[in-house]
Write a structure and sequence with these properties.
Blueprint (H helix, E strand, L loop, with lengths): L1 H6 L39 E10 L2 E10 L5 E7 L7 H12 L3 E5 L14 H7 L6 H18 L2 E11 L1 H12 L5 E5 L15 H4 L7 E6 L7 H11 L7 E5 L16 H17 L3
Parallel strand pairs: 3-4, 3-5, 5-6, 6-7, 7-8
Antiparallel strand pairs: 1-2, 2-4
Length: about 290
């Protein structure tokens, strides 16, 4: 009888003991080695920072949280991982936000499907883990993360924003259509169009008119994985909605131009985009 009941549960709804990732990995994912000498490291002075557990309906999801030590009613920024999971670069992004007065939280959104930090080959990262992560699960986990920030860490979800990189950039667009309480988003070189699947049924271009919060898209002209024609399609699709979202394309910038730990890093473009992100958030009340 027990097996019959479990067979009715969607595959992504696992029991508490079936979470594959129960704690975050220190350092960088194996797939991103070697690490660049220009990697930025932000200290924790004046911050409360470290791993936390986010209660979700089927267990506890590990996440990285950073915030000012004495902050109250802090604006909340959900930080969505690259394809490589919540490794050291994503943690550092959280600390950068915390230094500016934000509560930043990066949930490990692959926690049920697998630990990508131990996989060296990016093709295996995609085939073994990322392709098995349902969009519906991601949206629910981000909702739970925002709630946790409000209830447990002096966060104010009246001032809620989201940013994400690569895989997380796509998620930002989807979440801006999903959560009507979101104030602003910033999507770094996230895929906009392409193949869909049962678990990832829609791309950002498909839901552009449904986006509720203003999203700032930050893209590179030389990104070989995101054709410029899809960027233009997204711009046109956004005109059918009322989100006031915008997309900026940096000339000659490759995919991952903000990733200071990789050779793709372009310092001038990354700094300009970060400045624009902060201005975007402030303009929209975060």
């Amino acid at each position: 009888m027990k097996e019959d009941i479990l067979s009715l549960v969607p595959k992504f709804e696992l029991t508490r003991r079936e979470f594959v990732v129960t704690s975050l990995t220190a350092g960088f994912a194996l797939a991103v080695q070697p690490i660049s000498a220009q990697t930025i490291t932000t200290d924790t002075e004046g911050l409360t920072a470290g791993e936390v557990k986010i209660p979700v309906k089927d267990g506890d999801m590990p996440a990285y949280r950073a915030m000012p030590k004495d902050g109250k009613a802090l604006p909340v920024v959900l930080v969505v991982q690259e394809i490589f999971g919540v490794h050291e670069h994503i943690k550092d992004i959280c600390r950068r936000f915390a230094k500016l007065g934000y509560l930043a939280i990066a949930p490990e959104l692959y926690a049920r499907q697998g630990d990508v930090s131990k996989i060296e080959n990016i093709g295996e990262v995609i085939s073994k883990v990322v392709s098995k992560v349902p969009d519906s699960q991601v949206m629910a986990d981000l909702d739970a993360t925002a709630k946790w920030g409000r209830d447990s860490s002096n966060g104010s979800t009246d001032k809620l924003a989201i940013t994400g990189f690569c895989w997380g950039g796509r998620v930002v667009w989807l979440y801006a259509a999903h959560n009507p309480k979101l104030k602003a988003g910033a999507a770094w070189y996230g895929r906009l169009a392409g193949n869909s699947s049962e678990l990832q049924p829609k791309n950002p271009v498909d839901i552009a008119s449904e986006i509720k919060a203003p999203v700032l898209g930050l893209y590179g002209e030389a990104d070989q994985g995101i054709p410029l024609d899809t960027v233009e399609k997204m711009r046109e699709a956004l005109k059918k909605g009322n989100s006031s979202s915008e997309i900026i394309v940096y000339p000659k910038a490759p995919h991952g131009f903000h990733a200071d730990y990789r050779a793709s890093y372009r310092k001038e473009d990354a700094q300009d985009a970060w400045k624009r992100l902060l201005e975007w958030f402030k303009t929209h009340g975060v």
